[in-house]
């Protein structure tokens, strides 16, 4: 788990994290994947970092977006989560939502400042690659991306 200003690494030997921190992180990831906006909000209000990432670089926003949970994405963005943070494979949350075909999540991410051109493939490139004209229209209607 990584996070700017995250858990302190103990000296000597492999990284060890407080078991309570690990448990809380697991709850936050499960809440994002499961799409429970009330639980996501409670955990963030209790101090969970909104840009927490897993060992693959997936943020909470990425997990909520990929699993189609628009309201959980909205809560994360309201708490300062970065809609453009790219995972270790170069993917953005917006590209994940486009790939999964969830227009409600795409709208929430765009409203939250997601860049249709971020990542590789970008959300716009993914929409065109999978011939998702509905997604191309949604991504370009806000004026943030251009289909080439």
CATH architecture: Alpha Horseshoe
What's the name of the CATH homologous superfamily?
Answer: Ankyrin repeat-containing domain
Specify the biggest β-sheet. Answer: none
Question: At the third CATH level, what is the topology name?
Answer: Serine Threonine Protein Phosphatase 5, Tetratricopeptide repeat
Count of helical stretches: 8
**Overall pLDDT metric:** 87
Helix content: 40-55%
Structure description:
- Helix 1 runs antiparallel to helix 2.
- Residues 1-14 have low confidence and may be disordered.
- The protein is globular, with a radius of gyration of 16 Å.
- The longest helix is centred in the first third of the chain and has 16 residues, at 19-34.
- 50% of the residues lie in helices and 0% in strands.
- It has helices at residues 19-34, 37-45, 60-66, 70-78, 93-100, 103-111, 123-129, 133-141.
- The chain has one domain: Alpha Horseshoe (Serine Threonine Protein Phosphatase 5, Tetratricopeptide repeat).
- 41% of the residues are buried.
Secondary structure topology:
Layout: H1 19-34, H2 37-45, H3 60-66, H4 70-78, H5 93-100, H6 103-111, H7 123-129, H8 133-141
Helix pairs in contact: 1-2, 1-3, 2-4, 3-4, 3-5, 4-6, 5-6, 5-7, 6-8, 7-8
How would you concisely characterize the structure shown here?
It contains 8 helices and no strands. With 148 residues, the protein is mainly alpha-helical.
